[in-house]
Structures are given as structure tokens and as C-alpha cells.
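Re: [ENG-882] Designed sequences occasionally contain unexpected residues at chain ends

Forwarding the minimal case from QA. C-alpha cells:
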């Protein structure tokens, strides 16, 4: 209850949820003695794959007995997920104490919720100067609250696509603008560019960062992977190749994220990992709501022996890689869909092929979501679409047969609600 009250107060410090500027975060961090300058950080920017790449790095670093701090957003089940220090998530009392200290230093000055959370993370992270910080940027990078370092260990550029366009002026809602926002202010250290959805995007990124003096690694050019039989895949970069076991996470895209994680850790001189750390680490990745299979709980009981997956993808690029995974499965696929109102719903669903049924639902506790009935009405061009009010009704209404799969997707907020309900 105490934590909820503090969070509620912090959410009222600024009239806007997002207000792209670095002034407020810099002023608050100055009051906190600039903790961001006392930590070793790997910054992860992009549209998709940030969280998964961070979790892959985290798993490998843990195998190497290297302590980490992690800052990600948004949270899925509870806000504590955003604050991992010394390989451990803060509990409610620890997080309450931290937020109160930073709230006091802020002295009721206007600041967005994300900005004050970021300042709180930096403040706590400075207590562990030897730890590696894995930091996910927010909406964009150039004016994101996490972009106030004077130096870092590396910047990872994950897959970039069209998302959050409503935060850009109408005449700037382009992939060129998004790439500029995310990559034009990367620090001079190491830059690792992950696999992109097209050669055009890869070339645009390369053009935007051409004057940056960082050591640069590009997927395919400087590091790569190939799949092999017998449940292995082969990773290769400038340091040589490693035969690796398949990871414990689903999806082709995860091999891309894991390869980027490996390339990043191997190129940073301050980090000492070996092949065994990589081999063992990638079989122990903890990934919430990224093609996560629900294996027990209230919702799993409803589907019995059938597979039930939840995935927080919410943009066309995410839908594309998700469909690539579904295509690899020889079974009927049923989708349960809930989305936020500001997403491109029709474009998102256009990437899914050969879906047996589609059920739209309301996302509880999310006033900025689109109602399930309205979502259904927007997707009238699709076959076998129905609306159900909640996840339980949706699952029970699907005519599943043996070996059928149910996928719940469309929003990280929906994924969080589903996992909490389960």
C-alpha cells in the first residue's frame, strides 16, 4: 500500500505522461550528485528486441559470476521488475525507500513519471559501481531520460521499425525520423547493430552513425549465426565461432537477439566471458511475455493439454517475427487479441497468416486501450473474428482440438494482466 501511494504521487508531478526533454532529469540527477556518471552501462535502443537482448546478456553475465543492475520498461506484472540491483529485484519496502529519497530531492518540481523512475534507478545503481548496468531506453533515445551518460561501455541497436508514431509530428512519422531519433546521439564507445527487417533500414542506420567514431559491429558483416541440425546453432564473429545449444526461449528472432547479446559482451574489453558462460547462459534466459509459454495456472487449466502462449508484441515488426514463429508450427493457431488505442491494429493483424480463429478482448485497467468490440469492428476483413469481454470467456469460447495452440498477444499491458490473472 505504501508503494502504491508513492507511485500515485509521482505520477501526478507532470501533466503529461511523456514530455521529450532532458532538462528535468538532468536537474534532478544534479541534485543527486550525478549518479549516472558513476556506473558502467550498456545502453539498448531500438523498437523490438530490447528486453530479450538484455535478458540474454543478463543470463550470460550471471554464468560468468558478473553482478548486474537492470532497468527496463514498461513493467509487466509489477513495477519492481524495473529495478534489479546486484542480480536481485527490489522488494516493496526497498523500492518505497528509494523512491521517497528521490521524491524528496526533487522537491515537487514538475517531472514525468518515467524521468523520476530513471533518476531513482541511477541513484541506486551508483551504490554498485562495479556492476554492469543493462539499460533499456524508453520511447525514443535522443531525448529519452536514460540518455544522459557522458560515456558507456556500448550501445546496442536492436531492430527498428514504425511504432509510437503518435508522439511525432504528422510530417515526421517516417522510418528515417525514427532511426535519427534512436541513433543520432549514440555515445562514442562500441555500437552493435542487430539484424534489421530490411536492407534499407540497415543502410539508414549505417548512414546516420557514419560520423560516430565508435567501434561498430553490424549483423551479417561482423557477426552472424546459422542454424544446424541436432538442436544446435552456430555463432561466429571476429573472435571465432561457437557451437551453441538451442536456447530455452521460443522463436527465430530470439536467436538474432541472443547473437547480438553475445557480440556485445565479447567486444567489450572490460567484460571477461568465455564460451562456457555463453553456452550455459543461453539455456537459462528468463523472459517474461516474450513468446512465454504458460505451463500451469488458472488459464492453463482451461486449455488442458494444448499449448498456451503469451506475447507482448504490439507493432507490425513484432507481428511479423511472431508470425514467422507460428509458421514453423504444424498446428492450428488461435489468437486472442487486445491492443492499445494508438496502435495500427489493421497493419498489426495483416502480418498473421493462416489463423484458425481471432478473438478480441478488452484490456482491463487500461483506459488508453481500444475496446474489444471496437477492435473487432476494425478487423471485419478477417475471417472467424469474435469478441469476448475477458480472457476467461475468450479461451473457453475457442473450439480447440488436439495439438491446437492459443496465442494471447497485442500488448505488453495485456500480457501483464493475463499473467497476473493466471
Amino acid at each position: 500500500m505504501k508503494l502504491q501511494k508513492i507511485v500515485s504521487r509521482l505520477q501526478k508531478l507532470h501533466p503529461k505522461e511523456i514530455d521529450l526533454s532532458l532538462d528535468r532529469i538532468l536537474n534532478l540527477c544534479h541534485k543527486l550528485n550525478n549518479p549516472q556518471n558513476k556506473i558502467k552501462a550498456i545502453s539498448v535502443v531500438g523498437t523490438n528486441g530490447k528486453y530479450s537482448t538484455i535478458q540474454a546478456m543478463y543470463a550470460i553475465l550471471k554464468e560468468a559470476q558478473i553482478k548486474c543492475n537492470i532497468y527496463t520498461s514498461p513493467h509487466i506484472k509489477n513495477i519492481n521488475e524495473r529495478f534489479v540491483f546486484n542480480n536481485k529485484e527490489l522488494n516493496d519496502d526497498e523500492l518505497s525507500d528509494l523512491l521517497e529519497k528521490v521524491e524528496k530531492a526533487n522537491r515537487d518540481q514538475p517531472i514525468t513519471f518515467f524521468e523520476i523512475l530513471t533518476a531513482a534507478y541511477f541513484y541506486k545503481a551508483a551504490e554498485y559501481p562495479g556492476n554492469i548496468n543493462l539499460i533499456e531506453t524508453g520511447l525514443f533515445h535522443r531525448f529519452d531520460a536514460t540518455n544522459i551518460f557522458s560515456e558507456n561501455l556500448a550501445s546496442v541497436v536492436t531492430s527498428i521499425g514504425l511504432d509510437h508514431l503518435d508522439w511525432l509530428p504528422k510530417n515526421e512519422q517516417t522510418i528515417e525520423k525514427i532511426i535519427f531519433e534512436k541513433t543520432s546521439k549514440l555515445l562514442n564507445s562500441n555500437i552493435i547493430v542487430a539484424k534489421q527487417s530490411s536492407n534499407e533500414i540497415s543502410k539508414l542506420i549505417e548512414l546516420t552513425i557514419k560520423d560516430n567514431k565508435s567501434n561498430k559491429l553490424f549483423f551479417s558483416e561482423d557477426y552472424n549465426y546459422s542454424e544446424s541440425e541436432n538442436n544446435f546453432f552456430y555463432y561466429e564473429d571476429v573472435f571465432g565461432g561457437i557451437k551453441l545449444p538451442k536456447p530455452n526461449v521460443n522463436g527465430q528472432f530470439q536467436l538474432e537477439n541472443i547473437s547480438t547479446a553475445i557480440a556485445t559482451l565479447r567486444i567489450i574489453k572490460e567484460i571477461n566471458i568465455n564460451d562456457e558462460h555463453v553456452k550455459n547462459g543461453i539455456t537459462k534466459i528468463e523472459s517474461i511475455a516474450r513468446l512465454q509459454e504458460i505451463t500451469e495456472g488458472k488459464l492453463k487449466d482451461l486449455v488442458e493439454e494444448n499449448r498456451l502462449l503469451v506475447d507482448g508484441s504490439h507493432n507490425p515488426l513484432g507481428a511479423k517475427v511472431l508470425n514467422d514463429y507460428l509458421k514453423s508450427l504444424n498446428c492450428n493457431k488461435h489468437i486472442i487479441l487486445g491492443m492499445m488505442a494508438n496502435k495500427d491494429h489493421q497493419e498489426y493483424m495483416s502480418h498473421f497468416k493462416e489463423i484458425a480463429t481471432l478473438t478480441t478482448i478488452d484490456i482491463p485497467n487500461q483506459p488508453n486501450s481500444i475496446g474489444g468490440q471496437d477492435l473487432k469492428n476494425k478487423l471485419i476483413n478477417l475471417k472467424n473474428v469474435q469478441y469476448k469481454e475477458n480472457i476467461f470467456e475468450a479461451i473457453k469460447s475457442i473450439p480447440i482440438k488436439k495439438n491446437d495452440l492459443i496465442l494471447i498477444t497485442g500488448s505488453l499491458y495485456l500480457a501483464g494482466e493475463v499473467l497476473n490473472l493466471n
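QA comment: On inspection the terminal residues look reasonable. The first strand starts at residue 40 and ends at 45. Proposing we downgrade this to a documentation issue.
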